[in-house]
Amino acid sequence: MPDLSGKVAIVTGAGRGIGREHALALAAAGAKVVVNDLGGSLAGEGADQAPAAQVVAEIEALGGDAVANAENVADFAGAERMVRHAIDALGGLDILVNNAGIIRDRMLVNMDEAEWDAVVNVHLKGHFAPTRHAAAYWRERSKAGDTVRARVINTSSPSGVFGNVGQANYGSAKAGIAALTLIAAQELGRYGVTVNCIAPNARTPEQAFGEIAAPEEGFDPMDPGNMAPVVVALCADEAQDITGQVLFVYGGSVNLLQGWSPGELFARDGKWDADELLAEVRSRYPNGAQPPSMMAAMMSAGGQSLSTAQ
Is-catalytic flag, 174? Predict the structure, then answer.
């Protein structure tokens, strides 16, 4: 396991599921952890400080150092307070794992404005706001002459990188997170900050596939704990030159995705005539062109059908 001793990490949405596993793994590697969780329902309603406090207790029971934080990551000022909490309570900030999220699934024709706004706000703004304030802290340190080896780990989803029916709000936000990762990696590299993103496929309260039971014995590819080693690896000092990557993770499969890579090129010396372009497209795609289903895309990237996951 990489040695993260002396480093301070914030993990958002760390009271349950994948976020909890991240927090425990980072603490096991030696990091001090701010366990952030508003404690709301999966739909983002209500608040409960107990989940974050329970994870802090687990970390302390293992000899680690952690504090609970209940800020709303989508609140710009709250995100700043969360970053300041890490600095004041634990002595700095080296790692930010943006994991918090909610779901309000609905078919596009039935989705209302509030369902769209709530999900996009928590996921996309909830990644932007903490990253923005953490980046300001790291830029300040870098300009002061400190050597910075900081990490941002974002959380997309198969829905965001492959697309999924019934999740226009969630998938759009998760796709935006992947794009934010690429841009932030380019902007923050000059300060010693790497920015990467995982797209996890695991059994969590947030996943949209229904409860997938764990196998009675053997390796469980849907265990949310399978994601944590990827995060710990990306947080190591040895990963300083790995940035701007989006990693699909399922069980023991980790696929560094190449999204929006160059595809079929239609080129000519001058302006296309619409009829000619359509005819050329039809000649190369006689059966039309459609995106694959999320399941087909996941399987091509190393995933597995949930119906056969056990």
Answer: yes
